[in-house]
């Protein structure tokens, strides 16, 4: 097998016309050699299958036991003039003689192939394919130097040999059959795309899907290093587990690429996280190294995309691969989003045929052994942390491809129109990155652009008493101590040093040009449900650039992933303004009993708290808001373009007409105005209250109202509030009615309609709840019409 240290050990040439897997036992993995080996096998099979029938019988006779009377034990006809070893498949010009005796048992060739006389051409061609696979494996056994690989080749050789003798189909005998781990690598990457990128617009999400396809394709044609090579590289690894997976990979994925008589599976579909962990680090390193070497060969149309996004994609995926708490490897990752009712839709799958890989390298490399968790743009393997900073999380809204299946809500803007408008909005990735930002830009926009370019990085780091000191991390901790000491002069330096280097504290550090320019030191209290922010500072010459806001947003993302949703901090008079801008307030949501005795009390400081919303992607929040504003602006422009027609003024009043119907005004309908029909809007608040109260009582008394009486409990419907963004129930409506919230009939009807819409969105049509919603909705509108609030 090829040496794992070489770049070509697992990755065929980028600039090649297509990726071709390396032939097992070929002694190398260069694309051209692999392509030639695969092509030669296919040509030989085609030649042999097009040969005359006697020639086919002669070939099969070599692998067929003698059928002559007298219980001959010969297991294959041997020619008097044996061909060179290994047997060749080149067609011979001389005619085949079925009466030629066997060199071993002296019986004729015909005695060895009597069982094939009535066999169809199709079956004979199948057996001939197995014959050539046997001869190919025979070559592999003799050429292979690795003992483990040689043993697998020999086992497969015997299996195929037996299949020819018994005229059966080769069936691998193993304790387990594919798939060997769930979820598979393919499903895990699907989940990863949903988890991190489902909030992106369709164009950007399609880019991510293309990167994911390239990654899956590489795994399917990746040459695993042998167990002996891996033992030398990773001595403390689970050798037995890797050897088992390596054997399975050879039998089900690698060898069948060439020996097509064996059933073949895609690596990404039958293996899971365990195998991916064993190859990811080496694979990522070699792919990026090869990209650096061959970046000039990338097609111009792919260069910008690949040189920007693929390293980031791999870094973000790496964090999820090695994280012990990543949700993408849960089998109910998407099923839990709607109580098991939403089927898992495959977003991406590995291409069935290999194709060129185009990707990029990061502008600055970070040594995996010298850093903790880093920002999405710069992530690598972590020593102290396995959880990333600032990554996107599982979406709380329904998936994009389910939008068309959702019941429409009155007033909703059609998704077709939204998508059409989105297509006209400039792609953020294509916006020129300039320091001359708009005066209306978000505070963290400049910092976000710098992170995207790789100018700044974010790392969660901390001291450790259990691991060998890491020089780079220790240098960063010293840098953080200096920043905090200079920016917080009233804090004793000894106190700052003690907390920064305390193993119980961590610091989200901001790195620029390899040096620390800011950070947030914090201590997590998972059992109490909050984190205390101890120090927060950015060096003076790097302030007013949005770094502080972006730091806090990364910290929020980090804590949401760790399921801690409350921050507490003591802020002095100079910091209160900053924390207010970051969503902190003096209204503390954490019960006092939870934090008293846990956090440090500072004299003259103000205790402030911040409650996090797990539905918000904080690092991208301002981008999302900006995009929403652009969408609304475009919709308004479109509407204005439709109604921009100028109509003449009304002249009827000059003729003595005192009033006219609203709908008769020219152009009024084009603005979107609709007549209310015969329904009346009750202007008397007491009369409206009485009417709505009567209708609500009728609805609550209906036999189908029982599912909607109170808010849905999380224990009864896990994941409900991740799917339903605006819950509503009859109890809440009663409370709103008492507080005189319903100032118009439309508000009341909108809340009631929301109950029915939510029910149909969450539950399947065949469920009892769905049917109750339909029946109660029909009853409700009957009562509304009877009250004269809408047209009958």
TrEMBL record:
Residues 12-24 have a biased composition (Low complexity). Acetyl-CoA binds at residues 536-538, 543-549, 574-577. Transmembrane segments: none annotated. Residues 390-404 have a biased composition (Basic and acidic residues). SMART domains: BROMO. It is an enzyme of class 2 (transferase). It is found in: Cytoplasm, Cytoskeleton, Microtubule organizing center, Centrosome; Nucleus. Keywords: Acyltransferase, Bromodomain, Cytoplasm, Cytoskeleton, Nucleus, Transcription, Transcription regulation, Transferase. It catalyses: L-lysyl-[protein] + acetyl-CoA = N(6)-acetyl-L-lysyl-[protein] + CoA + H(+); L-lysyl-[histone] + acetyl-CoA = N(6)-acetyl-L-lysyl-[histone] + CoA + H(+). This is Histone acetyltransferase. It comes from Acanthochromis polyacanthus.
């Amino acid at each position: 097998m090829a040496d794992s240290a070489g770049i070509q050990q697992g990755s065929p040439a980028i600039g090649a016309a297509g990726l071709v897997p390396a032939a097992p036992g070929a002694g190398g993995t260069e694309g051209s050699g692999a392509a030639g080996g695969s092509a030669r096998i296919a040509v030989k099979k085609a030649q042999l299958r097009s040969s005359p029938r006697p020639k086919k019988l002669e070939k099969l006779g070599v692998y067929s036991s003698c059928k002559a009377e007298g219980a001959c034990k010969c297991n294959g006809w041997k020619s008097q003039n044996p061909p060179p070893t290994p047997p060749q498949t080149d067609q011979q010009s001389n005619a085949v003689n079925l009466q030629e005796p066997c060199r071993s048992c002296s019986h004729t060739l015909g005695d060895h192939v009597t069982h094939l006389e009535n066999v169809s051409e199709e079956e004979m061609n199948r057996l001939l394919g197995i014959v050539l696979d046997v001869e190919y494996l025979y070559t592999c056994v003799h050429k292979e130097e690795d003992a483990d690989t040689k043993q697998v080749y020999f086992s497969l050789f015997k299996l195929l040999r037996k299949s020819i003798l018994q005229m059966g189909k080769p069936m691998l005998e193993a304790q387990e059959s594919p798939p060997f781990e769930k979820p598979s690598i393919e499903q895990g990457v699907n989940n990863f795309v949903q988890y991190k990128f489902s909030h992106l617009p369709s164009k950007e999400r399609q880019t991510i899907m293309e990167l994911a396809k390239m990654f899956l394709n590489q795994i399917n044609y990746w040459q695993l290093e042998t167990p002996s090579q891996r033992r030398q590289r990773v001595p403390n690894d689970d050798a037995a587990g890797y050897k088992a997976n390596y054997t399975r990979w050879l039998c089900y994925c690698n060898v069948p690429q060439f020996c097509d008589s064996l059933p073949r599976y895609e690596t990404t579909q039958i293996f899971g996280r365990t195998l991916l962990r064993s190859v990811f680090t080496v694979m990522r390193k070699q792919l990026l190294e090869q990209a650096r070497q061959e970046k000039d060969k990338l097609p111009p149309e792919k260069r910008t995309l690949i040189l920007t996004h693929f390293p980031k994609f791999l870094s973000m995926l790496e964090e999820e691969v090695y994280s012990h708490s990543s949700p993408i490897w849960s089998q109910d990752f998407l099923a839990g989003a709607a109580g098991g009712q939403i089927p898992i839709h495959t977003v991406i799958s590995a291409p069935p045929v290999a194709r060129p890989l185009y990707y990029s390298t990061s502008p600055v490399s970070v040594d995996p052994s010298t850093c903790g968790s880093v920002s999405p743009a710069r992530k690598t393997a972590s020593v102290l942390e396995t959880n990333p900073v600032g990554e996107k999380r599982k979406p709380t809204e329904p998936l994009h491809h389910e939008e068309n299946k959702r019941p429409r809500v009155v007033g909703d803007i059609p998704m077709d129109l939204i998508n059409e408008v989105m297509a006209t909005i400039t792609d953020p990735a294509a916006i020129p990155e300039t320091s001359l930002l708009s005066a209306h830009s978000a505070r963290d926009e400049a910092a976000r652009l710098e992170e995207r370019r790789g100018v700044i990085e974010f790392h969660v780091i901390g001291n450790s008493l259990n691991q060998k000191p890491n020089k780079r991390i220790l240098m960063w901790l010293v840098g953080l101590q200096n920043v905090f000491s200079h920016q917080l002069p009233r804090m004793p330096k000894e106190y700052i040093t003690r907390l920064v280097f305390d193993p119980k504290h961590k610091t989200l550090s901001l790195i620029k040009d390899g040096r620390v320019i800011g950070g947030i030191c914090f201590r997590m209290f998972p059992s109490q449900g909050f984190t205390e922010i101890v120090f927060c500072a950015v060096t003076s010459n790097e302030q007013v650039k949005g770094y502080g806001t972006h730091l806090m947003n990364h910290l929020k993302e980090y804590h949401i992933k760790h399921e801690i949703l409350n921050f507490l901090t003591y802020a002095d008079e100079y910091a209160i303004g900053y924390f207010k801008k970051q969503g902190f307030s003096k209204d503390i949501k954490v019960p006092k009993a939870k934090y008293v005795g846990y956090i440090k009390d500072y004299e003259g400081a103000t205790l402030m708290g911040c409650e996090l919303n797990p539905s918000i992607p904080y690092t991208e929040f301002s981008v999302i808001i900006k995009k929403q504003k652009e969408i609304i602006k475009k919709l308004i422009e479109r509407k204005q373009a439709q109604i921009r027609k100028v109509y003449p003024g009304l002249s009827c009043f000059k003729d003595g007409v005192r009033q006219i119907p609203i709908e008769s005004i020219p152009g009024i309908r084009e603005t979107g105005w609709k007549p209310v029909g015969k329904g009346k809007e009750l202007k008397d608040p007491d009369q409206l209250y009485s009417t709505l109260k009567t209708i609500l009582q009728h609805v609550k008394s209906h036999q189908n109202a029982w599912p909607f009486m109170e808010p849905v409990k999380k224990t009864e419907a896990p994941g409900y509030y991740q799917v339903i963004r605006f819950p509503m129930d009859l109890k809440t409506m009663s409370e709103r009615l008492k507080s005189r919230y319903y100032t118009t009939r439309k508000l009341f009807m909108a809340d009631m309609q929301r109950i029915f819409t939510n029910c149909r969105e969450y539950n399947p049509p065949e469920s009892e709840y769905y049917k109750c919603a339909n029946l109660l909705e029909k009853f409700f509108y009957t009562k509304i019409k009877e009250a004269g609030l809408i047209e009958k």
